[in-house]
Amino acid sequence: MELRGDSCVTLNDGRKMPVIGFGTYAPPQFSKRLAEDGVKVALEVGYRHIDSAFIYKNEVEVGQAIKQKIADGTVKREDVFYTGKLWSTFYTPDRVRQGLEKSLTNLQLDYMDLFLIHSPIEFKPGDDLLPTDENGKPIYHNTDIRDTWKALEECKDAGLVRSIGVSNFSKRQIELILNCPDLKYKPVCNQVECHIYLNQSKLQEFLKSHDIVLVAFSVLGSSRDQKWIDQNSPVLLEDPVLNCIAEKVGRTPAQVALRYLLQRGAVVLAKSFTPARIKENFQVFDFQLSAEEMKTLDGLNRDMRYMDIRQWKDHPKFPFNDEY
To answer: Is 324 one of the catalytic residues?
Structure first.
C-alpha cells in the first residue's frame, strides 16, 4: 500500500478521511493554548485531519486555530477533516443534536466532517459532565445506544455532520447498531486505543469485514495523565525492540510505531505539542517496514491498555470486559 502525505482512506459512505490525524487531548494541568498552537503547527506542516472532543474542553481553541489557518490561506475549510465526539451526558435522543450544536458553536464551524459517540458508557444527562452521587460514585444512565445512533443519523441528514461513527465500542456493541432493522447509515469507523502493545488485530479484522475503519489513538503510548493512567505502565517509545527497528531503518521510534499501524490499514492520530515532534510524526510516508519487521512488531502485542477506565467497570455497557 503506497502512502503519501495526502493519503486518504475512503469511508463506507464514500467520503475520504486522511490517514494521519492530529490529536488534541492534553491532561487538565496543561494550558488549552497548547491545543491552539499545536493545531496551527499541524496544519502548517501538512496535517489535514484534526481530532478533538467536547470533554477535552479545548474546542474553542482548536476552532480558533482552524479559523486562523483558513484566514491566512494555509487551508480552505473543505481541506480540513474535523472529528468531534458526543460526550456521554448527551446520549438521550433529545440531547444528541444539542451536544453536537454546542460543539459546533465552540468550534465556530457550520458542520463536522465526522462525529463519534465517544464511548458506550453513559452518564446521567445534565450539565455535570462527570456526575457523581454523595459518595463520589458515578451516576450512570442507560439509553438504548440504537436510539442515540438514530438521532445521530438525523444530524447527518440535517447536514450538521458529514459522517458518523463510534469510539471505544466492542464488537458486540457495534453489531447492535449494524443489526438495527431500520439502520440508515453504518458507522464509518471505530476509534479505539491501538499501538504495538494493543494491536487490536481481532477487532480490526471484524471491522474490515463490515467496511468500518479502525482509527487508532494512544498510538505512541499515552500522555500518562495521572487521573487515567497507571504510572507503572511501560513507556511505549522506550521499547527495546521498537528502538532496535527504528535504528535499523534510520527513523525515530515514534515514526516506526506510526508506520506500523498505517501499513496495517489503520488511520492514526498522532499527538504532540512540540513543533519539532508534530513535524517528525508526519514524516512517515517516505519509508516502508519490511514484512519481517511488521511481524516482529506484531509479536510485541500484550493486550495492554493504557486507558482501561476501570473506575467505570461496573457500568452495564463497559466495553472492555468483551474479548474485543
So the answer is: no
